[in-house]
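Researcher: Good morning. I'm working through a list of sequences from a screen, and I'd like to move beyond sequence-only analysis. For each chain I'm collecting a predicted structure so we can compare shapes side by side. This is the next one on the list. No need for commentary yet; just the structure.
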Amino acid sequence: MGRVNKAIELLEKDQPIYYEGAHSGHSLTYEQGRLDSKTWADYINVGMEHGAFNLGGLEEYMKGLADAGPTKSGHRTPTILVEAPVDGSSEQNVRFNSWQFRQILGRGVHGILLCYAERPEAVSAFVESCRYPINMVGVGKGLNRGSRGTGSQLSSAPIWGVSEDEYVDICDPWPLNPNGELLLGVKIESVRAVSHIEQILAVPGIGFAEMGPGDMHMSYGIKRDPNTPLDERIADARERVRVACASNGVAFLSNVNLKSVEELIDEGARVISGASEEDAITGRKYTNRIMPV
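Model: Good morning. Structure tokens for this chain:
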């Protein structure tokens, strides 16, 4: 069989991916899952950082996606990534709240975004909390063994359309594990994070990263105006994230309100936010994408 995770399959081919989904207020019902199974996007962002931590709704939503599948690209469901409520301000904070990752992954999603990632130790704890201890790639080379306990594969494997044993093997972070189907990301969005960007993005197991402009503006005490050029400090932070992504084989996420889709792709962005379906059509044509939507 091919990839479970459409987003990873595209990123492996150096194809940009486009997503939809708000930071809060996404309808998590079985019926909405059936509707979203035919999305134009390559993945759907489910915002639980600010939206309700609705695990029951998430479970029903994933079932709706699976029951209405496959997608036009032949995947069982679209890729679903969840913004977790916990912030990455410290290792202790991440480990204390690691139950959130277990609960989210147990619903059958394909990845998690850690917001407010500020220290490399916190990001390492995030990656470790999402991994089964039986998966050893990278252990002793920047990571300790995983701490995700067995049990939730009973609910998540059917969503992925694989056996429970296979789920344990492949629910592991890509690109750290080339066969992994789990996509983990981080948001760099505070003054404190800026001085640690390079170390954070060197943590094994991170697949994509972004400079979160809204919170970064607030952290610098700047009122954000999307209609004006980025303040020099914000632009510098974005550039450091972009360069650190390129240096560590991490996909760079950027928003189309800054530049055209073609310009973002040319500068290295491989995860495009704020895109409309028309933007995605333009970008896919620009990169000669073959995979159906």
